[in-house]
């Protein structure tokens, strides 16, 4: 085997591959898909119990072209009144899973689902990022106390 000499000018690089690994989990079965904020709220009740969380959880639902959820991802778990959310984390799963659209969801541990200025700003930033990527942000649903939620789409804030 010939000797390999390095002159110091060579640089090593690595091939990086990323694969989507589907893990088994609870399935949200609906022939109609997610067609309303109420359906989103129901799904959150069934699978995430956001109403009883003591910290903010920011979750994304990733939908196919027919509006069926093909993935859900807890993007961030924050503190009592905020969570840090980056577009790269929101859209990473969307891109890997070939999602056509995204629904943003998070909870307010205070129980009041009224959107804050930060909620509206995050929604605007995610919508802009989605527009650049060709992935529509359909809604941002905020879950409060039992039975309470707010939809930024229904409120005309999208």
UniProtKB/TrEMBL annotation:
GO molecular function terms noted in the UniProt entry: metal ion binding; metallopeptidase activity
Task: Please provide the record's keywords in A-Z order.
Answer: Hydrolase, Metal-binding, Metalloprotease, Protease, Zinc
Q: Which CDD domains match?
A: MPN_DUF2466 (cd08071)
Top-level taxon in the UniProt lineage? Bacteria
- Which BP terms does GO give this entry? proteolysis
Q: Key word Heme present in the record?
A: no
Question: In the UniProt record, does the keyword Endoplasmic reticulum occur?
Answer: no
| Residue span, MPN domain | 33-158
As for family, the record states: Belongs to the UPF0758 family.
Task: Kindly provide the name given to this protein in its UniProt entry.
Answer: RadC-like JAB domain
